[in-house]
Structure formats: C-alpha cells, structure tokens
Amino acid sequence: MRWPRQILFGDVDAMFASAAIVKDPSLAGKPVAVGGPPPRGIIAAASYAVRAFGVRSAMPTVEAFRLCPGIVLIPPDRPLYRRLHEQMQAVTGRLFPVTEWTSIDEFYAETTDLQTLYPDPAATGRLVKEAIFAATGLRCTIGAATGKIVAKIAADTNKPDGLVVVSPGMEAAFLAGQPVRALPGIGPKTGARLQSLGLRTIGDLLDERWDQPLRHLFGPRLHWIREAARGLDHEPVVADRESKSMSHETTFEHDTRDRVYLEQVLHGFLRTLAAELRQDGLAAAAIAVKLKDSHFTITSRQRRFPRPLNYDPDMWPTIRQALQELMKPATFYRLAGLALTSLTPAPSGLFDQRRSKAIEAMDAIIARHGATVMGLGGVSKSEEE
Ligand SMILES: [Mg+2]
After folding, report:
1. Domain shared by 193 and 260, yes or no
2. Which of 52, 250, 322, 350 is the most buried (most CB within 10 A)?
3. CA of 267 to the centre of ligand 1 (A)
4. What is the pLDDT of residues 243-296, one digit of tens each?
5. 189 CA to middle of ligand 1, Å?
6. C-alpha neighbours within 13 Å on the C-beta side of residue 262
C-alpha cells in the first residue's frame, strides 16, 4: 500500500554515552555516563548499562555515584559529537530527499516519494539504521508514520535499537494507550493537571466525558491537542530547520523579579516576532524563553506547539507558562529573551478566512506603525470557533 505521506523519525540511542564507546570500544557494556565530576557535576547522558541502576540524564553526578558506585564517568567531548553528527548528516543527505535534523542526534526524513524505490517502510528504516551504524558505529531507533508526532512517539517507545512502523489508519489506536505527556505541547504542569483530573492516556483526551475540564484547561488549543491525539498532523519536514529561528532579547536597566513586567516584555517581543512571521509567510513550531539572573546564570525553557503557529494570542499561553516555570522565587533577572524556533512555511488553512482578513488588516497597521501600536488581542475570540 502506498502511503499518502510517510515520515521517518530517527533518534540515536544514548548519543553521548554511545559516542564515548565508539571512541573507546573497551567501554562497551560498562556503566558509562557522560557528565561533570562531583560535587557539582550533572549527568548529561547515561548509557543503557548505567540506566539499569536508575541513573538518568540531568541527575547530579553525586547521586549517580550513589546509585552505581562502579560508574565510568566520561567528560563531554563536543568535537566528537559534532564530527559524528556531520557523518550522520552525510548519510541522511545521501539517502533522503529532505531531512530535518532537530538536534544533534534526532532527525525527520520525508520518505513519501521514496516509496516507489522502497515500498516497505521497515526496509527503509533498516537501511538508514545500518548506514548510520556503518558510518559512525552508533545505533539509532527509527519510527515511521504518516506524521511527525506519531513517528517520534513510536520511536520513543521502542528504544534502544528499535524499528517501528505505524501504518496509515493506525495512528489513533497506537496513540490511545500512550501517556498524555508523550504528546508535544503537554509539559510537566499540564500533565500533572490532567492526571489530577483522572486523564492518563492520549486516548483519554478524546473521551467526551472530559470535554468540560479539557476545554477549561486548553481553551482554543483543545482542537489541535485532539487532532494530535488522533494522529492528524500535517507539519512538514523542513530541511536545515535547526538554523531557522527568530529572536529578541533585552537587558534591563535594573534587575527585576516582577513577573508581570517580564510577561509584558516577552509579550511585546512576541507581537513583533509573530507579525514578522506572518509577513514572511512562516509559522513557528516551538519557542524558547531565556532568562539571565543577577549572577549571570542563564536558564531557558523550550516548548513545542501541537502545530506551527504565527498568531500571537494562540502562542502566548505557552510562552507565559514557560516563563512561569522558569522563574525561581527570590531571584532577580537582568535579561529576558524569546526565540521562535522550528520555523516552517505557514500551513494553509492556519486561520479561517474571516480571521485572516482581520489579521491582515492589523498586520498592515503594524507594518506601518510598529507592533507596539496595536496587538492582536483585538481579534475577538468569538470568531475563533
Ligand atoms: Mg537520542
């Protein structure tokens, strides 16, 4: 059967730890972890051998040693990762017409047009797994599906060294049993709120019994969340996406811990950036909020939207939530920044026609007078449904 659309997602298994073993094969099978030394170091990546002891990335190294005294701690080796990444990019560039590397060890490949050559997506998946292993010595897990969200979740549930195909029509059934947190756009806070309501799986999001609380929780986003939960996802694979972003940041005259003020600053950035997106016919699939505190420590938080957006009132709740999660009590901040990332051509049908007209009219005013003159809060919500 020829698929209407076919996308492969690939994710290298425990990339940094595996890279250390590629460099020194005598480490194979040992409880390898990459990270900084105690007392202040953090685990950046854990091999599967060390994960068996409960060691996880982002864990303090001290804690990792407590769980696994025999841990083999390796310092990070950025040039090695960069070299392996370039070798993998060369492989995917040779095999696929369009590949989008979203991080140093994750990619999406558009394989719809390869079906004539490779009618079986499992065979395509094996081909790329073997080619990456031959070029680098790294193992990866591949998910194939009609959209990016399902392909990624499929791969995430079959690590390491996995290969999973979710055939057209099986998306909703596959997603139904997965935890809600697996869905992009559902972070730890929303996940906890859903759990307190009694929702555990992606399938629960489609259950009409929860219509009322879900509408309350997600507002207009619920429509997209549910489309994603059904596995309906039209986000395209865009080559070289990792380099495509727009951002704004500012350093304050006086350090501040005023959340309302920080929100106003980021909201202002968003208005300008979203207007630029629309003028360029682009949409952003993800955002990053960055803060620098009075001790010059930089923290940031990334969030993905269920689908690419360029209408700021739809984007704002996610950004506001990221800011709230990022802010620490009793901390003063000297800089705030916002980046719109994973830019893609704006999908058609992003707005209904009436709303598009209203946005067009406002964009014309923004283009003439600047975003500070007019925000898009003015497009009435009642027109959205
Ligand atoms: Mg990985």
Report:
1. no
2. 322
3. 33
4. 567 888 888 888 999 999 999 999 999 998 998 888 777 889 899 999 999 988
5. 24
6. 29
